[in-house]
Amino acid sequence: MVTKEVVTSTHKTRRVYKTLKEPKTRAQNVIPVTVAQVLAAQQNGDNLIWDEIELHQVSILGIVRSVNENPTRLEYFIDDLTARPLEVRQFVDADENAPEDKTDIARENQYVQVFGTIRDFQGKRSINAFKILQVADANTITTHLLEVIHAHLALKKAKIASEAGSWAQTAEGYSNATSNPPAAMSFGSNHMDQGLTPTQAQVHNVIRACSEDQGMSVHTITDNLRGIPQKAIRDAIEFLSAEGHIYSTVDDEHYRSTDSV
Predict the structure, then answer these.
(1) What is an example of a GO molecular function annotated in this UniProt entry (predicted)?
(2) CA gap 201, 239 in Å, rounded
(3) What DSSP line would sit under 79-112, residue for residue?
(4) Per residue in 56-74, pLDDT tens?
(5) pLDDT tens-digit profile of 162-208?
């Protein structure tokens, strides 16, 4: 599981997403997206799926094309130039973050960043906003686009790593398919008995395959497990070291297994 926390401001928004090891990866917190992604997401029951990622709470950034003020809500149409403008609603009574006076209301031709929940009613997409920030720094626009790209790649990479772990869990049952399976995938009940996760077992196998006195470098381990995020690999190394499965050698970047072949 990969988790990152959110920090928002007028000038910068950090990445916020959480991936679960499920057939479809769900973004539990706020994930930066474009309007085109919101509109292209496919309906699957009560869920909206885009590129096998379940979208719920998102952030978009664009220019206000129109504003409609009602007693209980503000209605905006936001255009980020990736698709047609998207309707955004901010309920005044139910949202303590709603503008307290009219000077805080975003106006036409202003850039804003919207944080909210996607709604789909009778095929019409919109966002119920729980926060709208007026963009004071043009760099925020570029930052958001980079965040959109990074979030998508990170979620896809996490999904690939999750699938690799699932494959590894069943690898023992297919051990007869080859007499010399890759070290990264060849682990069986021994690792499961030790209480290791699939990622920890794969890292352990790679390190065990090294018989050199100086051990294997973290860089080499990462190259052998390219489908797994580097942070997950380092977390696995830290766990294996603490549990006595491996030990550092010449420095903190080289490790050997306590039962190296």
Answers:
(1) single-stranded DNA binding
(2) 11
(3) E-SSSS-EEEEEETTT-TTS-SSGGGS--TT-EE
(4) 889 999 999 999 998 899 9
(5) 666 555 554 444 344 334 444 444 444 444 445 778 888 888 888 88
